[in-house]
Each structure stands twice: as structure tokens, then as C-alpha cells.
Write a sequence for this structure.
């Protein structure tokens, strides 16, 4: 359970942005990949507490989950995988560990109140 | 007052990643090869590391960092190998972060080292998220834990470079299904190299040490080993 420290890191990052803009935060949009090792529900549960006393207090954390994609050598392009337990191309079944996305843990947008 | 959407790009783990990157170039420059170990509690990490240190210390200069929530029991065990050991007690934190590694290295000169081992807190979830600046990450699991461990914790297997199956001396007693274990590892991480070891009998240790030395030579071709010969 390390989601509280992740939530605190998110708040730190957006606080910096809010301070620069002299604004408050209404919502934080986060891109989250399944291979980031961060659990969505646990992060949402920690976020409110982490934001207390910051310009993000009372804001909403909006999480967009991104799929795991591999670079399929056979299809010659990025493809979704069957599952995390079965890391192979959803189209042709080729197995590869060449992961091109799915590790995201990134703030991509803020809704700010001015 | 109005609400406005602003696009930003902020890596949440930027701080950890920055420290990890700095550590990695520091290690590279110093010529020390850094290996981290992750596993669930009780998988035999410390016994495996103890065996590794005892054998390698005859030829190389080594140091070890060991992370635990509490106690320095593991550090005391590892210190029996005569290798410098430092304990990182994380309190309630369930994983090591790059900054903890950086702080723990204070006062050690990594130029005087050939290998640095970092034993992470016993946990198959949280350590996956944090880069420590290591060259090689091992994930260990023991034959007593069940063949489906990789399926339950795919993320940690995906951040590791090699998988070591421990306690092979118990394989027959617990009816370990070797083939299924290998299949499960390959299913979550196609192409992953697997080593089977027993710290008790020494099975597979020669192969592991050979692998380690080869990886170090590849990563640090210019590093000169001052170490003694047998």
C-alpha cells in the first residue's frame, strides 16, 4: 500500500502549478497504466486526505486508465495484450515483453479555478 | 471565478526518477555494478544473498544495503559474510525509494566497489513502482509459494530483469510443478531468464554467479577488478 505516498506526490506536483498560477485546483486528470504498480481505488481513497490543506483540497482526481500495449513483431505495430497474465498480441497471439505503454503515472491536465 | 482546463505533463514519480537517474550515472562512473533483489517475505532472499556474498567476496569488493520495515536481523546475518552491510529501516514504508539508497550510501566510496547489492523490503507489490538506479533487478520466488505467484503479481515480474526460483532443495517435498512455474513466468514476461537455486545445497549458484559476472563485464567493460584471485 504505497498509494498515499503517490497521492502526496501528485498533490506536491499540482500545488507547484497552482502556486505559479495563483489559482485553486478543481480537478486533476491522471493517466494511469496497469504496470505502474498503483491501484486506482487505493489512490482515489488516499487522494482526499493527501490534498487537505493544499490548493487542491476538495478537488476531484479523475483517473484515465491506459491499456498495456506491446510492439508486436509480427503485426509490426503497437497492439493491446490479451491480459497482464498473458502478455501476447491480442490480434495474432505473438508473445513479447516489448512493452510500449502501460507504465504511465502522469498528471496530464488540471482544472483550475481563477 | 471560472474553471479552466490546463494541459500539463507531470511525471508523478519525477523526484524519485531524478534521484535514480543520478545514482545510475554515479554507479556507472564509479564502475560498480548494482543489483537489487525483490521478493515476498520469506522467499529466501537473505539466505541467497548471504551465499552470494560469501562466494563473491573472495574475488570482488562488495557492499550491501538491506531494507526492512523493522529490525536489523537481516543486516546482522549478512554481516557474517564479512561484507560491509548497512540496514535501511523504512518504518512503515513498504518499499525502498532512490533517496533512501542515496542517503544510505553516505560515507561509502563506490569507486572502491565492484558490486553493490540492495535487498528491498519483502513485498511483491510496491517495489515495482520505484526505480533505485540499479543495473539489474532480480525477482525471487520460492518453490513453497506456489507456481502461480507470477500470475498474481505480474507487475513486479515485468520490472525485473531475471527470475530466480529459490529453495529448490524442497521442490520434491512440496511437489513443485516446475514446468507450470516456468510457463507462468513466460506468460507474464515472455523471454525472461530463469535460474533455479538452492542456497542450502548450492544448486544453481555457480550458474548464477557466472551470469552475474558476465552481466557486470558487459555493463562495466572498463572497470578494473582489483580483487584478489583464488
Amino acid at each position: 500500500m504505497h498509494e498515499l505516498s503517490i497521492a502526496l506526490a501528485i498533490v506536491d506536483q499540482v500545488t507547484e502549478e497552482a502556486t505559479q498560477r495563483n489559482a485553486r485546483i478543481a480537478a486533476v486528470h491522471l493517466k494511469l497504466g496497469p504496470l505502474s504498480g498503483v491501484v486506482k481505488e487505493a489512490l482515489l481513497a488516499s487522494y482526499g486526505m493527501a490534498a487537505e490543506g493544499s490548493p487542491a483540497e476538495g478537488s476531484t482526481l479523475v483517473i484515465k486508465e491506459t491499456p498495456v500495449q506491446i510492439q508486436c513483431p509480427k503485426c509490426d505495430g503497437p497492439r493491446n495484450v490479451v491480459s497482464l497474465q498473458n502478455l501476447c498480441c491480442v490480434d495474432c497471439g505473438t508473445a513479447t515483453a516489448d512493452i510500449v505503454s502501460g507504465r504511465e503515472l502522469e498528471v496530464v491536465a488540471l482544472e483550475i479555478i481563477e | 471565478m471560472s474553471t479552466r482546463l490546463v494541459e500539463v505533463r507531470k511525471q508523478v514519480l519525477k523526484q524519485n526518477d531524478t534521484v535514480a537517474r543520478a545514482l545510475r550515472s554515479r554507479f556507472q562512473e564509479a564502475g560498480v555494478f548494482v543489483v537489487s533483489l525483490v521478493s515476498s517475505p520469506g522467499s529466501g532472499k537473505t539466505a541467497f544473498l548471504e551465499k552470494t556474498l560469501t562466494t563473491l567476496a573472495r574475488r570482488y569488493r562488495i557492499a550491501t544495503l538491506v531494507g526492512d520495515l523493522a529490525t536489523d536481523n537481516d543486516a546482522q546475518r549478512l554481516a557474517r559474510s564479512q561484507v560491509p552491510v548497512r540496514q535501511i529501516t523504512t518504518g512503515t514504508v513498504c518499499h525502498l525509494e532512490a533517496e533512501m539508497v542515496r542517503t544510505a550510501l553516505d560515507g561509502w566510496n563506490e569507486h572502491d566497489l565492484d558490486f553493490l547489492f540492495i535487498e528491498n523490503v519483502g513485498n511483491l507489490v510496491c517495489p515495482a513502482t520505484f526505480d533505485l538506479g540499479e543495473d539489474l533487478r532480480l525477482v525471487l520466488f520460492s518453490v513453497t509459494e506456489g507456481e502461480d505467484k507470477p500470475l498474481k503479481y505480474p507487475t513486479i515480474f515485468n520490472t525485473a530483469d531475471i527470475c530466480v526460483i529459490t529453495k529448490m532443495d524442497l521442490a520434491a517435498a512440496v511437489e513443485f510443478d516446475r514446468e507450470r512455474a516456468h510457463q507462468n513466468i513466460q506468460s507474464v514476461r515472455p523471454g525472461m531468464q530463469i535460474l533455479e537455486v538452492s542456497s542450502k545445497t548450492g544448486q544453481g549458484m555457480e550458474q548464477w554467479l557466472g551470469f552475474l559476472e558476465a552481466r557486470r563485464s558487459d555493463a562495466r567493460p572498463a572497470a578494473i577488478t582489483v580483487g584478489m584471485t583464488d
About this structure: Chain B has one domain: 15-219. Helices of chain B lie at 14-30, 45-56, 73-79, 98-104, 149-152, 154-159, 178-188, 205-219. Chain B has eight helices and eight strands.
